[in-house]
Write a structure and sequence with these properties.
Radius of gyration: 59 Å
Distance between the termini: 140 Å
Number of helices: 34
Helix content: 55-70%
Protein name: Mammalian uncoordinated homology 13, domain 2
Shape: rod-shaped
Organism: Heracleum sosnowskyi
Largest sheet: 2 strands, antiparallel
Pfam families: TPR_PATROL1
Length: 915
């Protein structure tokens, strides 16, 4: 049987055409001639004619066990088995047997190796032995072509171009191929043919005439004939099985070695090739053929080391190159052929690959290299096999995944293609480690590492292309990146485990695996997602703050609807963040929190901006002056009293420059609500972090520290601004413009208290319970400060006598009682703490003028030293009233309505009188 899967035979091509039938008939003739004198040819088998059996450790390696027999049995000889196996007719067999009997009878025991069998057959066979002249002439032509092939085209010894026998023989053969020759004993042509053939066939290398005839032992003619004989051992009906009589056949085939010039080395090479070729030609279904071929190639390796025959070396190189190429093809895509069930076949192919390549290297160098060099050569080849096959397997997996996705593209909740592929590749890597790497590790110490590094690189190309197309964070993008991250961790872990015992600790493999940086990509995408969300929130805040009217009736909680929305959006953003299927929530949360914090801080700062401040509402302190009581001044006071009675308090009225008190209260409530809600959100974030397995919560710090601080400061500033606006702006007509203008007895505090009480009721009805008392305390503080301003910086329209101090003190008590509110208002200690300065200054109003002057002198000397004893300097106005401070005492004197004070101030400071 000729090879069908490999590129020709390694034995070379004949220089002339001999058909398969010609070769079989010639080989059969040699077989019969070589074994005819031996009893083995007549061995009788009790089996069926050609009962096949499966190849199992055959070909002289071990005995085999037959697998089945034909039920119809008859006695046959080995010669008969051979005839049937070589598809030789019974007539041809009988004719050859008869001719050989006549030949041996005439040679008187001469060995077949000393005969030129084709000449003997040509001499013995007559036309009468054939059924037709045509058949006889065809036989004659075949024999002539065999002679040409064996003696002229492929001789045992190279031909001498000057040898006339060569030329004459070629002429005789050429004529014989055109016209049948006369083979009679006395035929001149036959005599010439005989003489020239024997002249060439009996040559020897030392020039002597050999008793051995070389007509079929030249390469490749002899090997092609021998291959034909070996192939006869395979059953003609079942090409993967050998006949039951294979051992006997093989022993008789070896009898042809003398004629064909075959030795054990050639036999091993030919038989290993025949086994291998048969395995390939029969679709590689009978693995025992391959196993036996491998065992014989081990023998070939030994033979190769002991021969320097150039012909053998050339044929060996050709055969091994074919085997190596075939093994390369298999192993560069071993995932396509080998699996758990036939891994033993892969092991054999690997052994063949290493074996054939080591022999080839040795043969080329004629220097048998050390074992380490062989390992290095095998390692390089195995490295190539792994990378090539793994790449092919990856491509196949990818194609299957994409094909499957296309067929199920309408399926809901389908995983992204690369997520599926990542899992497939992970499974492929684990299979590689479990099934293939144990075999490959024999030749490559980092077999698993090379495989996973290759898979890592293959997936990297797909991932890079995917990432380049991502513009925003999507569930698919996260799934793919998370799958890639898991795949990479698994692959790296396998590579690390595989390289524990390697010289470099696997660094070469690890360095080859350029990180996917999936976490970096995820981080960048999440940051982009955060920026997008925050930008939207900022736009919303700006737009809605412009539309917010701070209406107390907007909701029952009496805080701004925009605050509800901004907190809702912030909360939804945080919830959406924790729903992102990423492993780095704790790492990326600070970015989100800082951005939300700044956005909320902007809302808070905008909420409190433009609402005024303490300094904005305080009146300007007038210059020090003097005024005296009189009819003219009283008229002015009475005129102002009428004006005061016509003016209404401004509480609740919107000023075009400032918000009304209710609106300010809503702003206060809003900031207070934000601060409380942020605490709730912060606790929810801590729960999310705990659920995510994050334990270093102390390291997170205050999550909304900017917003929380801004809320605290904002509430404080708004409360102060509201208080001072109420006292110095809204209630100014009855307070700053009315209290103690003219005579104290006619302009007391009652009108102010009535309006202040109304203002406090409005505040209390709007402001949240948690901050109501704070605001009222700020109102009280502002009213106390305003009360002192009236007494100490009320302008030239105010003047007080010692007797007035009793009414003034009584008015102040009325004011403090309003804030105490029978125990329902501010705590006594709070009131007392803020009232203490006022009470101490009120005490100065009770002191007589001369004593005040003495206190002023003492205070000035204390503040300025002895240099002020001759002339008292004018103390500057600090605005911080203190009964021991010179400016405060001086102001009490300036507003003292008596002549002693007037004389002192005019003499000492030249203060003018002003109306």
């Amino acid at each position: 049987m000729s090879s069908s899967s490999l590129q020709g035979t390694p034995f070379g091509q004949l220089s002339l055409h001999l058909s398969d039938t010609d070769l079989r008939e010639t080989a059969f003739e040699i077989f019969i001639a070589a074994s005819g004198s031996h009893k083995g040819l007549n061995y009788v088998s009790s089996s069926s004619l050609t009962p096949p059996r499966k190849v199992k450790k055959v070909w002289g390696l071990n005995n085999v066990v037959g697998t089945h027999h034909n039920s119809a049995k008859r006695l046959v000889t080995i010669g008969e088995v051979m005839r049937v196996q070589m598809r030789i007719s019974q007539e041809f067999h009988s004719r050859v047997r008869r001719a050989l009997l006549r030949i041996t009878a005439g040679q008187h025991g001469k060995r077949m190796e000393s005969l030129v069998l084709p000449l003997e057959l040509l001499q013995q066979l007559k036309a009468s032995d054939f059924s037709s002249v045509t058949e006889y002439e065809a036989c004659q032509k075949r024999i002539l072509k065999v002679l040409e092939a064996g003696v002229l085209q492929h001789p045992h010894m190279p031909l001498d171009k000057t040898n006339t026998a060569t030329r004459k023989l070629r002429e005789i053969i050429d004529r014989g191929l055109e016209t049948p020759i006369d083979t009679g004993r006395h035929s001149e042509t036959m005599q010439a043919l005989w003489n020239n053939v024997m002249s060439l066939a009996c040559r020897s290398f030392d020039g002597s005439v050999s008793d051995m005839c070389h007509w079929a032992d030249g390469v490749p003619f002899n090997l092609i004939l021998y291959q034909t004989l070996l192939e006869s051992c395979f059953d003609i009906d079942k090409a993967t099985s050998v006949v039951e009589e294979v051992d006997e056949l093989l022993e008789l085939i070896k009898k042809t070695w003398g004629i064909l010039g075959i030795n054990q080395a050639y036999h091993n090479l030919c038989l290993s090739w025949v086994l291998f070729d048969r395995y390939v030609a029969t679709d590689e279904i009978e693995n025992d053929l391959l196993f036996d071929a491998e065992k014989l190639f081990l023998e070939v390796e030994k033979d190769a080391k002991g021969t320097k025959d150039p012909s053998y070396c050339n044929i060996l190189s050709s055969a091994l190159s074919s085997v190596s190429s075939w093994a390369d093809k298999k192993l560069t895509a071993y995932h396509d052929t080998f699996y758990r069930g036939n891994i033993d076949v892969m092991q054999t192919v690997l052994s063949l690959s290493a074996l054939t390549n080591n022999i080839l290297v040795e043969d080329k160098s004629h220097d048998y290299r050390s074992k380490s060099t062989e390992v290095d050569i095998s390692c390089d080849r195995i490295d190539n096999y792994i990378r090539s096959s793994v790449r092919s397997a990856f491509i196949q997996k990818k194609e299957n995944v994409y094909l499957s996705r296309r067929s199920s593209r309408h399926q809901q909740n389908a995983l992204p293609v690369l997520s599926i592929l990542a899992q497939e590749i992970c499974d492929l890597a684990f299979n590689e480690k479990e099934i293939y790497s144990p075999l490959l590790k024999r030749w490559h110490p980092l077999a698993t590492g090379v495989a996973v590094a290759t898979l890592h690189a293959c997936f990297a190309k797909e991932l890079k292309q995917f990432v380049s197309g991502i513009s925003e964070l999507t569930p698919d993008a996260i799934q793919v990146l998370m799958a890639a991250d898991k795949l990479e961790k698994d692959l790296v872990q396998m590579a690390v485990e595989d390289s524990v015992d390697s010289e470099d600790g696997g660094m070469s493999i690890i360095q080859e695996m350029t990180p996917y940086e999936a976490e970096v990509v995820i981080t960048n995408l999440v940051k982009s997602w955060i920026r997008t969300r925050i930008d939207r929130l900022k736009e919303w805040v700006v737009r809605n703050l412009q539309l917010e009217v701070w209406n107390p009736q907007a909701n029952k909680e009496r805080f701004a609807p925009s605050a509800v929305e901004v907190l809702r959006i912030a909360d939804e953003t945080l919830e959406a963040f924790f729903l992102l299927p990423i492993p780095t929530h704790p790492v990326l949360l600070p970015d989100l929190m800082n951005s939300l914090d700044k956005c909320l801080q902007y809302y808070i700062l905008t909420t409190k901006s433009g609402c005024g401040s303490q300094g904005k509402f305080l009146p300007v302190i007038p210059d020090l002056t003097r005024c005296t009581a009189g009819s003219k001044l009283q008229a002015v006071f009475r005129k102002k009293d009428k004006l005061i009675q016509r003016r209404k308090p401004q509480v609740g009225v919107i000023n075009e420059d400032n918000a009304a008190i209710p609106q300010l209260c809503v702003r206060i409530n809003t900031l207070h609500h934000i601060r409380k809600d942020l605490e709730v959100v912060e606790n929810r974030m801590i729960t999310h972090l705990r659920n995510a397995g994050y334990t270093e919560l102390d390291d997170m710090g205050k999550m909304f520290h900017l917003s929380q601080n801004a809320c605290l400061e904002g509430v404080q500033q708004l409360c102060v601004a509201t208080a001072y606006k109420a006292i110095f702006h809204d209630l100014s007509p009855v307070f700053w413009d009315g209290l103690y203008i003219g005579e104290v007895s006619s302009s007391r505090i009652e009108p102010f208290l009535q309006d202040l009480e109304q203002c406090l009721e409005i505040m209390s009805s709007i402001v949240d319970d948690g901050i109501r008392m704070r605001l009222i305390a700020d109102v009280m503080k502002a009213s106390f400060e305003g009360f002192l301003l009236v007494l100490l910086a009320g302008g030239p329209s105010r003047a007080y006598s010692v007797e007035d101090s009793i009414m003034i003190e009584e008015d102040f008590n009325f004011l403090t009682d309003l804030f105490w509110s029978n125990g329902n208002g501010l705590a006594t200690e709070v009131i007392e703490k803020l009232a203490i300065v006022v009470k101490r200054i009120l005490a100065l109003l009770h002191i007589d003028t001369q004593s005040l002057i003495e206190q002023l002198r003492a205070a000035v000397l204390n503040e300025y030293g002895s240099s002020a004893s001759s002339k008292l300097p004018l103390p500057p106005t600090s605005g911080k009233w203190n009964p021991a401070e010179s400016n405060t005492i001086l102001r009490v004197l300036c507003y003292r309505n008596d002549k002693v004070a007037t004389s002192f101030l005019k003499k000492t400071y030249k203060l003018p009188k002003k109306v």
